[in-house]
Specification:
The protein is α/β, with parallel strands linked by helices. The chain has helices at 19-23, 41-52, 64-70, 88-99, 127-143, 182-202, 225-233, 241-244, 246-253, 280-294, and strands at residues 32-35, 56-61, 77-82, 104-109, 121-122, 125-126, 147-156, 206-211, 264-266, 269-271. Helix 4 (88-99) packs parallel to helix 5, helix 5 packs parallel to helix 6 and helix 6 crosses helix 10.
């Protein structure tokens, strides 16, 4: 189901559009939508806006309490679910529980971490690769039977995938044992997100990835104080949270994108990613390695 970039429809929205703009006037009351990382930032904004338009949002966060507290002021139907994405056993258990809430129209794989400047490990690999990619690999694969025919998978990647290693994925250095660079590690995890969506599309799923834009959310909370201060100074040039959530909501719900797969979106429109994000041999190897790393949890 890989759609060529030329064949992917362009929409009327752009860089300054907000999540509310792209769903304005829509009735999503027939939609059940799962979103990870729904306790803050663009994940919370997507949950809020989609529920506002009538969707039943199954919102995942580190704990039920955190999701409930974060969404307390949101209108509409939001079901909070706890899912610690650093714990693969918890992710697998969450998938079993969440499947009972289906069937689903859309899965939004949004949760992500930047990681520390020094390497942290999770399930034998660098934590950003584990949380940003492998946890979603487990969750989405286990939940695919609960996705309605014609349903969508939306994977939040980032233009940070341009910061991945030259070879794309350093399969012999997934834990950073042969050298660790924080932004390169993060970029590698975001490239993995884009390749995962492309692999799903090649398997017949309407799956796409996207760059939400640069938004001053708490993902930057792990940066050293000096770099954090520079990020704060750059807020004037960043998108608002509402603008950052727009592309996700658009790709998840736009009628024009029905049946579209394997496309990378930026500013609510199809965009060309780094060539590595369209490298199907690299995608195949990543899929095989991801299966090996998560096999006990795939069911």
């Amino acid at each position: 189901m890989i759609t060529s970039l030329a064949a992917a429809p362009r929409g009327p929205f752009g860089k300054r559009s907000t999540a509310e703009d792209v769903v304005r006037g829509r009735d999503l009351s027939d939609q059940t939508i799962l979103i990870t990382g729904a306790t803050s930032g663009i994940g919370l904004e997507c949950a809020r806006v989609l529920a506002l338009r009538g969707a039943h949002v199954v919102a995942l966060g580190r704990s039920v309490g955190k999701v409930r507290a974060a969404t307390a002021d949101c209108s509409g139907r939001i079901t909070p679910v706890g899912c610690d994405q650093e714990d693969f056993a918890a992710v697998a258990a969450c998938a079993v529980e969440v499947a009972k809430r289906g069937p689903f129209n859309v899965f939004i794989a949004n949760a992500g971490i930047l990681g520390q400047m020094e390497p942290e490990f999770c399930h034998g690999v660098a934590k950003p690769f584990a949380v940003n990619h492998l946890s979603h690999f487990i969750l989405v694969n286990r939940l695919l039977p609960a996705l309605k025919p014609g349903g969508r998978v939306v994977v939040v990647s980032s233009d940070a995938h341009y910061r991945a290693p030259k070879e794309g994925i350093s399969f012999d250095n997934l834990a950073g044992e042969k050298g660790y660079r924080a932004m390169e590690c993060y970029g590698q995890s975001k490239l993995a997100n884009a390749l995962f969506a492309r692999s799903l599309a090649r398997r017949g799923v309407a799956a796409n990835s996207l760059h939400p834009g640069v938004i001053a959310t708490n993902i930057f909370g792990t940066l050293p104080p000096l770099i954090g201060a520079l990020v704060a100074l750059g807020r004037l040039f960043m998108k608002s949270v509402g603008q950052g959530a727009a592309t996700t909501c658009y790709v998840a719900t736009a009628p024009a994108l029905e049946g579209i797969g394997g496309i990378y979106f930026r500013d609510c429109n199809p965009a060309r990613p780094h060539p590595n994000a369209e490298n199907d041999a690299l995608a195949d190897r990543l899929w095989a390695v991801s299966e090996d790393l998560t096999r006990p949890y795939l069911g």
